[in-house]
Predict the structure.
Amino acid sequence: MTLAAELEAIAIAVAREGGDLARRRRSEGVAIAATKSALADIVTEADREVETLIRDRIAVARPDDGFLGEEGGTHAGTSGITWVVDPIDGTVNYAFGIPAYATSVAAVTGTPTPGEWEVLAGVVYSPAQGELFHAAAGHGAWLDGRQLSVNAAPGPAGALLATGFGYDAATHAADLALVGRVMPLARDIRRIGAAALDIAYVAAGRVDGFFERGLKPWDHAAADLLVTESGGEIAWIDDQERPLTVAAGPALIEQLVAVASRPA
Ligand code: IPD
Ligand code: CA
């Protein structure tokens, strides 16, 4: 078994256990524990509990690895591998009872920063929908035993695109301007509410492409590998105040990056 496949097996186990805990907590009722960067940026007790569970499981399986989690569970390791984890991506959906939320678990080498890391294994698990997307570098991307492949090119009506908006209300106008620039390429736009799922859906050919400014490493580390292992491409452009992440198939990526990265 390659190292990537070993890490993938651990990622599958911890994402499934963590996501199932989130779903169980959801069925027991959800309380907002705190707000973070903005009033709209919330965290629930379940976000923290799931991150702790995943961190503890990884510490047992891979004691020398580092950890970077959205809810602050961060430490450097000595093995060169870091686990980049969002315990619940789509927390607002989770809090409002919309089933589009996911547990995202990636193992990366190098600095755990987009553009510098190499993602070796990635899992995006949607417990409410019973879908677990997984990939190991060099082994393809998979959902329920089916190998994933991005859409080769958008159809004649244009691209079905997904995007998201930051929590800070001060960024909404620029994000809407970005949508306006991209719209001529689109047949329609989806705002699903969980970036990890949006990007996993690019890998699965459910949308043709994705773009969003201001994502954090844990929002997309795992899903990035799903896309590259399913024949797609990821672009991460850090020349703006809020970095731009773009995911699409080979026929669309250049055009989408060109339109999306043009300043408003
Ligand atoms: C958020 C979701 C959302 C995206 C935001 C993210 P969180 O993550 O992925 O779709 O638009 O940029 O911060 O806070 O639910 O983990
Ligand atoms: Ca989160």
Notes: The radius of gyration is 17 Å. The longest strand covers residues 81-89. Residues 70, 86, 89-92, 164-166, 193-195, 212, 214-215, 219 surround D-MYO-inositol-1-phosphate (ligand 1) (CB under 6 Å). The helical segments are 3-28, 45-61, 91-96, 172-182, 195-203, 217-228, 253-261.
